[in-house]
């Protein structure tokens, strides 16, 4: 089983355990804020399932109907996660509003907070695993899942602080008020997850840092060519697609031009892992004098 798939399965298992702990904490206390925390964890489980399915689809090899592969499935998963995070936030706002209408004293708050704290520790550890490994494997679905858990951990810390404050002050309305604040934070997190994923679905170009690497490789490795122009890039999942026109002298043989292209592709895949490179060779009269000059 590939590493990203193992992490996705791990997310699902952790999500189920954390959901159980947070639901128990809510039942022990009756806290609206802890209920909001549990509601967010139901989304964690749902998004973990979505990420697992997306990663399995993205791992499929290219076929006749999908000649560029299935990598964009991860972006769809991340967008779905963003939508579900926003739905969870709206549910929490609804519960917070009902709690403000009729605030109630909490039952067994300290014991409930201890159970909720254990769930937050598990989430925090797994969040770090997902974000570090997700970036290493360049998996948008895992990174989105990690960011979602990060917002969950932050909101859980806020919930704990608020419930303790409500206990100390005796002001029961603090509990639902804090749940509303948590919901607003979750809304912002959901929007960020969606915005990042939509950029991939819209074939946004690679970041400037990666573009600089690509241009440097072409300039250094295209010895025998004159220039490169019309450079285009996009990313889908962990794959970076790169295509450009390479201008060579009119006397260059097909074999020599092919050797130049092979050299560029070999070096490009070292500097930009999982790169898919397409090069269109052109004679010198097609030069634009505005592209990448070969060193």
Strand order of the largest sheet: 3-2-1-4
**Series of secondary-structure elements, N-terminal to C-terminal:** HHHHHHHEEHEE
User: What would you say the CATH architecture of the largest domain is?
Assistant: Up-down Bundle
Strand content: 5-15%
The number of strands is 4
Biggest sheet, open or closed, and with what strands and sense?
4 strands, mixed
Number of domains: 2
- The end-to-end distance, rounded to whole angstroms, is 44 Å
Q: What is the global morphology?
A: elongated
- Let me know the average pLDDT: 82
Quote the CATH topology of the largest domain.
Alpha-lytic protease prodomain-like
Q: Give me the secondary-structure category.
A: alpha+beta
Contiguous runs where pLDDT drops below 50 for at least 5 residues? none
Rg from alpha-carbon coordinates: 25 Å
CATH level-4 homologous superfamily of the largest domain: Cation efflux protein transmembrane domain
Broad CATH class of the largest domain: Mainly Alpha
Total number of helices: 8
Helical fraction: 55-70%
Structure description:
Helix 1 (about 5-30) runs antiparallel to helix 2. The protein has about 300 residues and is an alpha+beta fold. The protein has a four-stranded mixed sheet with strand order 3-2-1-4, covered by helices on one side. The mean pLDDT is about 80. The chain contains eight helices and four strands, in the order H-H-H-H-H-H-H-E-E-H-E-E. The chain folds into two domains: about 5-200, Alpha-lytic protease prodomain-like (Up-down Bundle), CATH 1.20.1510.10; about 210-295, Cation efflux protein, cytoplasmic domain (Alpha-Beta Plaits, 2-Layer Sandwich), CATH 3.30.70. The longest helix has 30 residues, at about 140-170.
